[in-house]
Amino acid sequence: MVSWIISRLVVLVFGTLYPAYSSYKAVKSKDVKEYVKWMMYWIIFALFTTVEVFTDMFLCWLPFYYELKIAIVVWLLSPYTKGSSVLYRKFVHPTLSSKEKDIDDYIGQAKDKSYDTLVHFGRKGLNVAATAAVMAATKSQGVLSDRLRSFSMQDLSSYQSDPVNTGPGVTQPAPTQHRTKTMMRSKSESYNKATS
């Protein structure tokens, strides 16, 4: 565990932060030789980081694994060994030069496919959103029509067919009042349930 922590700190400080600051200095000074040196380092470091993801999963049980990683980072960075320049010039540059056209074609195809995929899923997303909007509108129409049906002509005619005295101060008989209130309460409750 201690070796892991130390290796992570070394990779962070000496593998990332120091080269980043040195790259900043190279950009600021506009020294082309320094540009090239640090660009080679960053290319090699990107490859190192990619390989490190897989080796950390499968080789971390090896004795002195983390110490080896520290040694590799120091070797890549050292101005005496010029490890990143050696790896770049002997392996990476020749390999990338011979495969550059294939890699560019693959990246172009990937861009085209990603654009097509984005458009395809965008259309599907819009279709799902439109379907959801139509369904929501349909459901709200159902609630509205149920509400309107609750005050249909049949309800009004049954209400009017009850004997009502129209004289001043005269009220409906108690059973008729009770039935009318019950009918209105049940309609109100069914509307509340439908909107919930």
UniProtKB/TrEMBL annotation:
Compartment(s) where it occurs, according to its Swiss-Prot or TrEMBL record: Membrane
Protein name (database record): Receptor expression-enhancing protein
GO molecular function terms listed in the Swiss-Prot or TrEMBL record: microtubule binding
Organism, scientific name: Larimichthys crocea
Main localization, broad class: membrane
Region called Disordered, residue ranges: 157-196
Keyword Magnesium: no
Lineage: Eukaryota, Metazoa, Chordata, Craniata, Vertebrata
Family to which this protein belongs: Belongs to the DP1 family.
Gene Ontology cellular-component annotations: cytoplasmic microtubule; endoplasmic reticulum membrane; endoplasmic reticulum tubular network
Polar residues compositional bias, start-end: 185-196
Superkingdom, natural source: Eukaryota
Transmembrane segments: 38-62
Cross-referenced InterPro entries: TB2_DP1_HVA22
GO annotation, biological process: endoplasmic reticulum tubular network organization
UniProt topology in membrane: Multi-pass membrane protein
Keywords recorded for this protein, A-Z: Membrane, Receptor, Transmembrane, Transmembrane helix
Pfam families with a match to the protein in the record: TB2_DP1_HVA22
